[in-house]
Specification:
16% of the residues lie in helices and 46% in strands. The N and C termini lie far apart (140 Å). A hairpin with a 2-residue loop joins strand 4 and strand 5. It is α+β, with helices and mostly antiparallel strands.
Length: 310
């Protein structure tokens, strides 16, 4: 009977100790947590991963269990932290630093969830990003766009960024002249559109960006046509030009709706100076007073024969 009572007492004492321990470990305490981190960052002309690990230390509030876990960790592997380029400053050579209030932007990456930083103990975090062979190349949009009838693009397609840095061995970089996007295929386009496109990867070459954003500006248009006479401008006294043909067919694509006649003040003319420099006597006409809201102007024919007469 005494042995049985002793077992019951021992079990109860063990359970009470466990309950006490779990209760206290679940409470929040203040303590120092130190973690080694390797930085990742896109810095022009440099590797995107630091070759060193910096130790980040801070006085934190966390559960007793978390603080105990940090105390018992030995030889822990550095974690990876992705830094924003705007938070990195050059110190010298290949050394860059993250200092001041910028550290507050990375608390979760440094220490994980459910940790409140009371104060950083580490002052300046230094990272070394070695220089790499690199060059800047344009981004080329690969696209197949079909517009709905009487709709057209009103501005060049905008890419951001429109050029990127590429890194690699000199032999590989030499053959890289541009980076292409994934194909953009749109049919029956009748409104402005924007989005993101992945960049095509090249074996053995690292890109400073993995994607670009694009913006397409599209408007509806109305097509207006007229026969416009060809004038001659800036001819010296006593000089006269005859232009053949004497009229051109002009087709204007205007933003819909377009409330006025765009041909009221519109003019086409041949500049005598162009004729004087021409070996063949063929000239391309200039436009004057092209109204705002005109998206496209087509002239037929595109080139006119000019003959000087007495």
């Amino acid at each position: 009977m005494r042995g049985r009572n002793g077992v019951i007492f021992l079990t109860a004492a063990t359970l009470a100790l466990l309950i006490w321990l779990l209760t206290n470990l679940s409470r929040e305490y203040s303590g120092v947590i130190s973690v080694p981190v390797i930085a990742e960052c896109n810095i022009d002309g440099h590797s995107d991963v630091s070759v060193n690990a910096a130790m980040v230390s801070a006085r934190c509030r966390a559960s007793g269990y978390r603080l105990l876990q940090e105390e018992t960790r030995k030889n822990r592997k550095p974690g990876r932290v992705r830094l924003d380029r705007a938070d990195i400053r050059l110190r010298s050579g290949d050394q860059f630093y993250l200092a001041g209030n910028a550290k507050n932007n990375y608390v979760q990456q440094f220490f994980g969830d459910e940790v409140y930083v009371e104060a950083f103990i580490s002052d300046t975090l230094l990272f070394t990003f070695p220089a790499e062979n690199h060059k800047k190349v344009p981004v080329e949009l690969v696209h197949d766009i079909d517009y709905r009838t009487q709709y057209m693009m009103t501005e060049p397609i905008r890419l951001v960024p429109d050029s990127i840095m590429v890194y690699g061995e000199p032999g590989r970089l030499e053959s890289v002249e541009r980076i292409r996007t994934a194909p953009l295929s749109i049919s029956d386009l009748h409104e402005s559109k924007h989005g993101v496109l992945r960049l095509s990867k090249i074996k053995g070459v690292r890109l400073s960006a993995e994607e670009v954003s694009y913006e397409l500006t599209v408007s509806r248009y109305v097509e207006l046509r007229s026969e416009v006479p060809i004038e001659v401008r800036n001819a010296p006294p006593g000089r006269h030009l005859q232009v053949y043909p004497s009229e051109a067919t002009v087709i204007l694509r205007c933003i819909f709706p377009f409330g006025r006649d765009p041909f009221t003040q519109f003019h086409l003319y041949v500049d005598y100076a162009d004729f004087a420099k021409s070996l063949s006597g063929r000239c391309v006409p200039h436009t004057e007073h092209l109204p705002s809201g005109v998206l496209d102007c087509r002239i037929a024919p595109e080139v006119f024969d000019c003959i000087e007469v007495d």
